[in-house]
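[recover] target loaded
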């Protein structure tokens, strides 16, 4: 008997040349083509949790089985409609835009298909078509991949909120993709079309050439090969939430919040000699490396080292802060966070040089957090929850590394400028942590994530000391 052999109508992307494409246009499907994974759930879960909280994530989880059944027995579009409704119904448009700008890019960037990027990046004009709501994909694609045009599913809005419904022509799958492509390009179609599934074939057939991207297991593209590195992101979640991970997060949060309260109480109420043992018993690890400097001797008129102890809040007025720091150094040891903020990725922001102008007794200290479930910092969320999220991790780790005291010849007293001192310390701390140095600042971070410069409105002065937030 003869054997039936099925042939794919398009060649694989490995056969597509990337040479001489500078004046041509490419259009690629996003899910399963530009990204390795076709699953939409992780990105909807991120949006649900970051913009709507744990109850919204629970709502999405409850409706996900219905979406799965519709996907299998009715249509792909019907299943996606349910996911969209569960995720965004009632959300402010600004909240969706904020998550798309500050949260999703980091997770997209970890899943880029290397072979697709080899071809896609060679074209002078790059376009993407996606089943996802366009509002969720466009910020990453345009800012980090240099995409010129994004064609995606459109969500219905009422006033400034999402209704959870989808605008015409509906979810962009199969023929809807082809119709959207015709509307966007008219008679002059892109030279190359890239897809990965039969549902992509209708739009691929409209292109002059088309290639299929294999969904076999391949390693993601090294993020250093992207046109622009992702330095800042603002997700509370450390890992991309699969359905199982999302379920675990929902179940863990009530228990984790109680655990966080116990840990915070132990750190603030117990005598200091007991705190480390209490933390160890509660699953918190504080790792100290190197040798801390001896405490300052006020009787000997010795000013303090820069080391991790309590300080007051900086005003970010250079002259006022200089006076404040001089006063505090007369009292004893003082910590300065020269970045002025935190950065989750392995980068160090530019160091302020003010500290180098005020003392030559400098001990660099490298500090790093290790978290498995939640990030303990935020630029766009409620910062009052930062310590709770950090301590809600099953086993958070805080690692402190004391480096050698800076020799006098490398300080301003030794003839170095304050900027040279600050840059040198940035380099040695970055080397200790295996991080990269940048010239980015706190203002750059808040503009990228929150759309403002991060300035806090001044409050009336109070006599009580405050801890300087980093």
């Amino acid at each position: 008997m003869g054997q039936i052999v099925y042939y794919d109508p398009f060649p694989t992307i490995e056969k597509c040349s990337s040479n001489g494409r500078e004046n041509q246009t490419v259009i690629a499907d996003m899910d399963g083509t530009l990204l390795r994974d076709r699953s939409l759930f992780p990105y909807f879960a991120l949006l649900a949790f970051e913009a709507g909280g744990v109850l919204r994530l629970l709502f999405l989880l409850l409706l996900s089985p219905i979406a799965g059944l519709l996907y299998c027995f009715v249509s792909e579009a019907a299943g996606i409609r349910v996911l969209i409704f569960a995720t965004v119904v009632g959300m402010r448009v600004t909240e969706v835009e904020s998550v798309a700008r500050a949260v999703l890019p980091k997770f997209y960037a970890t899943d880029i298909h290397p072979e697709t990027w080899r071809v896609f990046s060679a074209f002078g004009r790059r376009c993407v078509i996606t089943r996802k709501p366009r509002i969720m994909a466009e910020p990453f694609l345009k800012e980090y991949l240099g995409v010129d045009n994004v064609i995606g599913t459109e969500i219905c809005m009422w006033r400034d909120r999402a209704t959870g419904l989808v605008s015409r022509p509906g979810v962009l799958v199969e023929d809807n993709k082809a119709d959207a492509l015709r509307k966007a390009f008219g008679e002059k179609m892109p030279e190359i079309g890239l897809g990965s599934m039969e549902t992509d074939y209708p739009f691929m057939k409209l292109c002059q050439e088309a290639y299929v991207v294999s969904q076999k297991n391949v390693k993601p593209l090294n993020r250093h090969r992207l046109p622009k590195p992702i330095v800042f992101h603002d997700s509370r979640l450390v890992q991309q939430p699969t359905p199982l991970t999302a379920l675990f997060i929902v179940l863990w949060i009530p228990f984790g919040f109680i655990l966080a309260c116990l840990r915070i109480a132990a750190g603030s109420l117990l005598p200091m000699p007991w705190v480390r043992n209490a933390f160890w018993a509660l699953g918190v690890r504080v790792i100290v490396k190197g040798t801390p400097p001896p405490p300052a001797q006020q009787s000997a008129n010795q000013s303090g080292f820069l080391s991790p102890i309590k300080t007051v809040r900086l005003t970010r007025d250079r002259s006022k802060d200089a006076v404040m720091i001089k006063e505090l150094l007369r009292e004893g040891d003082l910590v300065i966070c020269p970045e002025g903020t935190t950065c989750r990725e392995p980068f160090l922001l530019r160091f302020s040089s003010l500290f180098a102008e005020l003392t030559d007794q400098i001990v660099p200290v490298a500090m790093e957090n290790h978290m498995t479930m939640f990030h303990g910092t935020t630029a766009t969320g409620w910062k009052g929850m930062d310590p709770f999220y950090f301590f809600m991790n099953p086993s958070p780790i805080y690692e402190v590394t004391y480096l050698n005291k800076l020799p006098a010849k490398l300080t301003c007293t030794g003839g170095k400028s304050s900027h040279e001192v600050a840059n040198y310390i940035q380099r040695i701390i970055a080397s200790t942590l295996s991080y990269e140095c940048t010239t980015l600042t706190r203002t750059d971070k808040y503009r990228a994530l929150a759309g403002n410069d991060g300035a806090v409105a001044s409050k009336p002065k109070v006599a009580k000391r405050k801890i300087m937030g980093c």
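[recover] notes: The chain is about 40% helix and 10% strand.
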